[in-house]
Design brief:
With 360 residues, the chain is an alpha/beta fold. The chain has two domains: 11-154, Rossmann fold, CATH 3.40.50.1970; 159-359, Dehydroquinate synthase-like - alpha domain (Dehydroquinate synthase-like, alpha domain, Up-down Bundle). Helices cover 53% and strands 11% of the residues. It is built from 14 helices and eight strands. Strands 1-8-5-4-2-3 form a six-stranded parallel beta sheet, sandwiched between helices. Strands 6-7 form a two-stranded antiparallel sheet. The site of nicotinamide-adenine-dinucleotide has 28 residues, from helix 4, strand 6, helix 5 and helix 9.
Length: 360
Amino acid sequence: MRFQHETLPQRVGFTPGDAAAAVEAEVKRLRGRRVMVIASTAEADLAGRVTADVPVVLRHEEVVMHVPVAAAERARAAAATHEADVLVCVGGGSTTGLAKAVALTSGLPIVAVPTTYAGSEATSVWGLTERARKTTGTDPRVLPRAIVYDATLTLSLPVAMSVASALNALAHCVDSMWAPRTDPIDQALAGEGIRALAAGLPALVAEPTALAGREQVLYGAYLSAVAFSSAGSGLHHKICHVLGGAYNLPHAQTHAVVLPYVLAFNAAAAPEAEHRIAEAFGAASAHDGLNRLRGAVNAPRALRDHGLAEADIDDAAHAILGSVPANNPRPVTLLDLRRILRAAWQGADPLTLEKDGEEN
Ligand code: NAD
């Protein structure tokens, strides 16, 4: 066994019902005196409660999905004008993403309080969008210094969004099994992430106002992001990255729809990963496990329901081709990408794609 794994420096607390006290403690630990709170208007009340005990100099509410550069620049200017010394972000991946954009140029420390299962808080990956192109990069400055997980903050996340967001986390796990820098630690984290998500998500859907399912999902989401941050973006993330940036598709739903198609495409060529995923689901195969979960939680099924036009499939396949990881378990042609995208656009049975691929 020969590999190198980098563990990212970050304090992680699971404090159900106690986010305000935990945020106060983290800001004190960072000696913060001038806190900039980043939270969208929709999460303003939540953020107000969570940051009630810290010295706030600015509440910044302009949060836009995929972090447009212009919005990032306005947030950076606001942080500088108010001489902020700590950023506290309360919200989903879009909100964390904006805090990261500010940290990227200012070096300000972030305390992240996630309210979805996106997992951005546990990665050193930033993303910015300009003229329909999403650019991402990795920088230690954007890794939040601390994460405050409080599952009670996710109780208000509607069930459909919770399902999509949790399947986004599941996609981090599955893709981490074969992503460019994957290692045995990533695979162990991803396996436990799949187990937690597969147990927690049906419980969440059955009883959305209870904490038990949501806590499991939040735990799984954290593990998924740690694995993803270390393993890097595999084929699944490369596809979703282009779709999100170029066609402004909703992030979580896009991941939720595309995942079974990438799994069907790669599984036979990655037997060890397939076995691990199946084992984590407690299913006969990775496909069966994912399919069963998707059925149980009424998962999003087709990209055409989420804003992708049929006419864009060809261009999207071309745009993705150049970024396919060289070590993907099986080679990927333009035709393969067209098939994957068309099947995901229609919501076709993923296994028909596997068969089509064999005929290629
Ligand atoms: P989001 O942050 O855009 O939130 C989706 C919606 O949910 C918004 O309308 C928001 O107001 C609402 N919401 C959030 N929390 C809520 C709550 N508790 N109750 C009710 N409503 C709530 O979506 P997301 O899926 O969390 O994040 C997507 C973004 O995160 C994308 O831009 C993606 O690229 C980024 N992301 C980055 C990384 C990374 O490592 N850098 C990882 C995952 C996602």
